[in-house]
Amino acid sequence: MEARVAEQLRGALDPFGFEVHAFKVGWYNAVLQPAFHLPYPDDTLAFLVLSTPSMFDKALKPFVNKERLKIIRDPVDQCVSHHLSCVKEKFPDQKVDIICDYEILPNRKPKFLAQTAAHVAGAAYYYQRKDVKLDPWGGKKIYGVCIHPKYGGWFAIRALLLFPDIQVPFLEQSAPTDCVSTEEKRIELLEQFNFHWQDWRYRDIIEVKERYSEEQKAYFATPPAERFRLLGLPGEAQRNTFH
């Protein structure tokens, strides 16, 4: 069942620059405090959805051109939501729950911890302070970051797709690729991500197969309210934007 669902998802999302990775809810819940648990049985089938560098040209720009008068919030969020809704329609006999990366609970906590989900799904390795043996940061707060074996840091975690009626007790877990394997490189990665994230260098901590285009980098480097102008969207959409 998992293989058939995965094949359908990949057929629907791969052409638009998305990747999907299967996991069991129990793998995710096992490494988190109860406050962050997903409220499903452990064997529930779930998929992590991430966007690759090609999503900008394959999904976002065509979506903006087609839906330009309907875009009233973040164009990327709305584009992702559109494609996931289309995917949901491909499973009329299944219950499919979608949780997007920007969704929050009433207590302002995220509905899911994206980087943890990426790690347990085998999509990208989540490098954290605990992965460095000789910690050089003392009392500083150090945030972790996921690195994809093909795209480095040039990707984004977008959503979870959950299938509450599909239980997969025999699904085997694939470990994420440890592509930043030396102590020196891990320190360099966390340094760059925490203290120099705006210069993009941490994304190239490994040799990557594909990265964001200059146009895409300019888009994501622009404050959200000004991104509409880069896509040629009308000011009305900009005024209605919330972030």
Automatic annotation (TrEMBL):
Its EC number is 1.16.1.6, 2.5.1.151. Keywords: Cobalamin, Cobalt, Cytoplasm, FAD, Flavoprotein, FMN, NADP, Oxidoreductase. The keyword Flavoprotein applies. One of its GO terms (molecular function) is FAD binding. GO terms for cellular component: cytoplasm. It catalyses: apo-[alkylcobalamin reductase] + an R-cob(III)alamin + glutathione = cob(I)alamin-[alkylcobalamin reductase] + an S-substituted glutathione + H(+); apo-[alkylcobalamin reductase] + methylcob(III)alamin + glutathione = S-methyl glutathione + cob(I)alamin-[alkylcobalamin reductase] + H(+); 2 cob(II)alamin-[cyanocobalamin reductase] + 2 hydrogen cyanide + NADP(+) = 2 cyanocob(III)alamin + 2 apo-[cyanocobalamin reductase] + NADPH + H(+); apo-[alkylcobalamin reductase] + adenosylcob(III)alamin + glutathione = S-adenosylglutathione + cob(I)alamin-[alkylcobalamin reductase] + H(+). Belongs to the MMACHC family. This is Cyanocobalamin reductase / alkylcobalamin dealkylase. It comes from Dromaius novaehollandiae.
